[in-house]
UniProtKB/TrEMBL annotation:
It comes from the Bacteria. Gene3D superfamilies: 3.30.450.40, Winged helix-like DNA-binding domain superfamily/Winged helix DNA-binding domain. Residues 1-23 are annotated as: Disordered. The keyword Transport does not apply. Residues 197-258 form the ANTAR domain. Keywords: Transcription, Transcription regulation. This is ANTAR domain-containing protein.
Length: 272
């Protein structure tokens, strides 16, 4: 028989605004997995990883190593969802990534439910589980029989989950759930740091792009004014008209004006 779906609260208004994902709760206590806590090691990984996707892959690979045993390989994937950002998925293997891509396609599955409702989601056997509709059919075609999704608590409107897959039914019992929650708790603090770093990095990148775009448009306007002997407003009208007629961004049209006279578009530089 299928594992009963646990009682879960309906999404709040804030959750609905965040595609069904909840506003995360406060910090949970860090739980050690295996010989000892890996929280400090994960914090170091945050600083060593060039971007958040690489860090998530490290988490998935470590989780797969923790839960795998001789003759019983476990695939692990990590899903990160942030407002107004494309979801980030990575995994310990191509199979794990494919599993989470199937969830994204159907917008349902143990990992998504764990992230949305902030509670574990266990599938004892996909052959008998009836909760996921077409998603289940697609998963069975891959040979996966059981799965476990656990939430990774984050700040604000971000949500994440750790997903474990096995080709054997009944792979994940209550002890597996507690171990996975412990690992997710260890990963939580480090992932919060990684998300904050990514947020500030993205903000700086967007600011740099905005400054580059504005400077490029201003220079192109000056070039048109000189070539056409027209006013600033008239030069801007020419740029906007070209942008509209070619269905091209104004900044790209401006960049083409600069390139036409052999000048590269400007790039903003920040001193740290």
């Amino acid at each position: 028989m299928s594992t009963p779906d646990k009682a879960r609260s309906r999404p709040t208004t804030d959750q609905a605004a965040n595609h069904g994902f909840p506003i995360a709760a406060d910090d949970a206590g860090s739980v050690s997995v295996g010989a000892g806590s890996i929280s400090d090691e994960l914090q170091d990984l945050v600083l060593d990883s060039p971007d958040i996707a690489v860090f998530l892959k490290e988490i998935s690979e470590r989780a797969a190593a923790v839960f795998s045993a001789p003759g019983a390989d476990i695939h692990c994937a990590v899903l990160l969802v942030r407002p107004r950002m494309q979801s980030t998925m990575t995994g310990s293997s191509p199979e794990a990534i494919a599993m989470d891509e199937i969830q994204t396609r159907y917008d349902d599955g143990p990992c998504l439910r764990a992230a949305r409702y902030q509670e574990p989601c266990v599938v004892e056997d996909f052959w008998s589980d009836t909760r996921f509709g077409q998603y289940t059919t697609s998963i069975l075609h891959t040979g996966i029989r059981s799965a476990l999704g656990v939430p990774i608590q984050l700040d604000g409107a971000a949500a994440a989950a750790l997903d474990l897959y096995s080709t054997r039914p009944g792979e994940f019992d209550s002890n597996s759930v507690q171990d996975a929650l412990g690992l997710a708790g260890e990963a939580s603090r480090a992932l919060r740091t990684a998300v904050r770093i990514a947020h500030f990095s993205d903000a700086a990148k967007n600011l740099r792009l905005a400054m580059d775009s504005r400077a490029t448009i201003q220079i192109a306007t000056g070039i048109i004014m000189g070539q056409s002997r027209c006013s600033h407003d008239a030069a801007m009208t020419i740029l906007r008209s070209a942008s509209s007629s070619r269905n091209t961004k104004l900044s790209d049209i401006a960049a083409s004006v600069l390139l036409s006279i052999g000048q590269e578009p400007p790039t903003a530089h920040f001193d740290y």
